[in-house]
Amino acid sequence: MKKAYYLLLIVFFGCSKNPEDLKQHLSGYWEINEVTLSNGTKKVYNVNETIDYINIDKDTVGFRKKLKPNFNGTYQTSKDVEHFVFKIENDSLNLYYKTPFATWKETVLHASKDKLQIMNQNKDLYLYKRYTPITID
Can you tell which superkingdom this protein's organism belongs to (predicted)? Predict the structure, then answer.
């Protein structure tokens, strides 16, 4: 049943959009909303201390960085950054990461102005929403 669920997600999201069109929505600040592991376990994130900043540098290169938002609209960050190369393969937009510690692949299933869905090589599904800064006057 779980395999059918993931296959349906891949078919629905993978075929419903041109992978080239997904790239235009990747850059920006993203907040994790929910993760569904390949075994069906779901984790909902109501509050996040960090957000992901994704930036596309060139035609096929980008990076992801973790940021900690401050109440005054600024961000704290470490110097750690995960660079990726993206490729369109078999009608999918794939991100290939390589750090000194690991190498992995993620597939962008859906990317829009407000939502991002990514599946990793373990078949874990990550749902993000566009981050909106909280400002306190």
Answer: Bacteria
Phi first, then psi, for residue 80 (nearest 5°) are: -70, 135
Q: Are 24 and 106 in contact (CB under 8 A)?
A: no
pLDDT along the chain (137 residues), means of 10: 51 59 92 97 94 89 93 85 93 93 96 96 97 74
Select from 3.40.50.720, 3.30.470.20, 3.20.20.70, 2.40.128.280 the CATH code of 2-130.
2.40.128.280
The pLDDT, as a whole number, for residue 3 is 54
Residue 106: closest CA among 116, 94, 117: 94
Residues 6+ apart with CB under 8 A from 68: 49, 50, 51, 75, 76, 77
Dihedral angle computed from the Cα positions of residues 7, 27, 99 and 39, in that order, rounded to the nearest 10 degrees:
-30
